[in-house]
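Reviewer 2 asked us to include a model.

Predict the structure of this chain.
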Amino acid sequence: MSNNLPDSREKRGASSARNTLSIIFMSLVAIMALSFSVVLLIKNASLQRETDAVRSELNTMDKEHFYTEAEMGSRIEEARIEAGEKADRALREDIKKRLEDGEGANSIIKSLYPNQLVVSKSGRYYFIPISNKIKHHDFGPNDFEMDEKGFLKYVGEKKDFKFKQGVDVSRFQGEIDWSKVKEDGIEFAIIRAGYRGITEGKVIADETFEDNIKGAIENGIDVGVYFYSQAINKEEALEEANSVIEMIEPYKITYPVVIDIESADSDNARTLNLTSKEYEEVANVFCDRVEEAGYKSMVYGNLLSFTLLMNAENVDNRDIWFAQYNPSLYYPYHFDIWQYTSAGKVAGIEKSVDLNICITEY
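Predicted model (structure tokens):
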């Protein structure tokens, strides 16, 4: 029996070692399981927080009215319509107030179309695009104003800007005291040489032409002349030009010789159906003949003349005498003389007279 004791002790030691290893292994397994559980718990908590954050963001988006692309497009269209309706209401209220304040309908309509010239004729409105092919003047809308005498003055910012005051006259002004006209500050006069009959077409000299041109020159007033045209072709335009040239031959003419192109206020006017091309031909033939005779030529007209009767681009190379009875310039293109009223008052002329300013040195 004594010989087996070491084996027994060895067996007991081996068994004890195995038990210790098992305990250690099981402890490690338990620790790993616990760690895995902790990791899962942490991940679950993080996922829950993320889920809660997303849900909170979605709730906020819903409360703050965030929309899908389709919903946003619908909202934009609704906003556009609402803004348009507000703008329409504001525009109507503005027009109503301007009308109540006494502003004319033409003035209001013109202000609504700043890039077009608005022209009215025979109850209709025409909208003519403003052209950049035509030379423009550089005056602002407030560069001119009427003084206490009813004369138009330049009040803009151009330094050393020079202009002259003038009148244009015909038999309708009657007998004129040109010395008083001169004393009243008038520096030039455009005198009617004659006209062509609106219906019959006869060329007629103005009965006061000689008295007016002599009286103006004798009192140191520079003179030009104009002819009221109703020519319907180039032959008649030449006839009118030659008639004027013959009439002015004895006098010193320092201002232009002008063809007056206007729409005749008659349903029987011989020019009633003239095309723009025909009007332009009449104006250019007249001016070419005047220049050939050694005088400075010019075309007179109003807004209607330079939009519906003629295309301003086709007489752009001519000196322009423009009629507009408003101190705020509406016409955008260049001009040399501006007829600014037909109701002027000048000493020496009993009746109302057309007043003009000239901004070109002749």
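The first strand starts at residue 116 and ends at 121. The helical segments are 5-63, 69-100, 105-112, 178-183, 209-218, 234-248, 276-292, 305-309. We have added this to the supplementary material.
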